[in-house]
Amino acid sequence: MTNPQPSSTTSAVTARFNAAFGRVQELSRLAGSQSEAKQAETPKQLFLPGMEEFMRAMPNHVARSSLYAPIAKGKRTFHREALLVTRRDAVITYTGEQLDEADADLCMQLFFEAIPYPLGKPVTLNRAGLLTAMGRCTGKHDYEWLHRRMKALTSATLFIEAKKRDGSTKYHIGSTEAFHIVQGFRYDEVAGTYTFTLDPRWAVLFGNQEFGFLDWDKRLRLGQLAKSLQRLVSTSADTVQRYSLALLKERAQYRSPMRKFKEALTAAMRELEQLEIIAGGCIKHSTKGEEQAVWTKLPKEKSYDRNGLTADRE
């Protein structure tokens, strides 16, 4: 027996239903897009739960990468869409001057100062106060340094793609519209102030509690490589942390032989131990024979990761 063919009336009803359902789906999609656009237009503050006066913060993906590095003084490398060293769960490309740990200090201070303001709105700071908060002097040399670095941060651009555990894209920033570390600045010579803005997309990078807290007083007492390690330590709530020496060397943009890097790394770990940021820092061989740095994190401050706030540990 053959199956009966649908009548013309049934076909017409089905066609009308499909058309109506399609219109409902399209209206729902448009409503969702408009809602997202409206939310994007709504100014948001950089909300960092647990933030305190003596802390500074940096997004984990940025802090883990080679964006900032303890480079030697002198002429800086200029990167053009360079792929930065980072974990496999992110792809970061960068265009601009190679940034150092002093630039990282400046960025964290700007983040801190911008917290009371909606992202994308102007923030005005006294330049002397900004330098003092970073532990720097307020002479001509430091003022000139600050102006150069503000210009460098404004011209620098990033592309960041964060990935989920299954390898799919979690979010990407900078693919359709340039993402600058500092969106723009204006210097008032009479008032001695800088006015700058931060791109609202910084909220995405700090989102999902994926950022690290750094003890600011301790940081200002550290050398450059120790500062770099402090940022790395802050990105994980793991008590025992292990990192390949090859990865650490490349992340630090260290161009001298591995022997010299191991000496500098050991000295940096001693600095972190003296300030009770880590304990037991040493260089070991992994089970696969790879040299790695191993230490125990001693967080006196609160720490965040994907699972949220962790308890203070001694």
Helix/strand order:
HEHEEEEHEHHEEEEEHEHHEHHEEEE
Strand content: 25-35%
Count the E strands: 17
**Tell me, what's the shape?**
globular
Largest sheet data: 5 strands, antiparallel
- Summed over residues and divided by their number, the pLDDT gives a mean of 86
Low-confidence stretches: 24-41, 301-314
Please bin the fraction of helical residues. Answer: 25-40%
> Span between N and C termini?
80 Å
Radius of gyration: 24 Å
Structure characterization notes:
Strand 10 and strand 11 (193-197) form a beta hairpin. With 314 residues, this protein is α+β, with helices and mostly antiparallel strands. Strands 3, 4, 7, 8 and 9 form a five-stranded antiparallel β-sheet that branches. It contains ten helices and 17 strands.
How would you briefly describe this protein structure?
This protein has ten helices and 17 strands.
Task: Outline the fold blueprint.
Blueprint: H1 8-41, E1 55-59, H2 60-64, E2 68-69, E3 78-83, E4 90-97, E5 99-100, H3 101-114, E6 123-126, H4 127-133, H5 140-155, E7 157-163, E8 169-173, E9 179-180, E10 184-188, E11 193-197, H6 202-205, E12 211-215, H7 216-219, H8 224-234, E13 240-244, H9 245-251, H10 258-274, E14 278-285, E15 291-297, E16 303-305, E17 308-310
Parallel strand pairs: 2-5
Antiparallel strand pairs: 1-12, 3-4, 4-7, 6-11, 7-8, 7-9, 10-11, 13-15, 14-15, 16-17
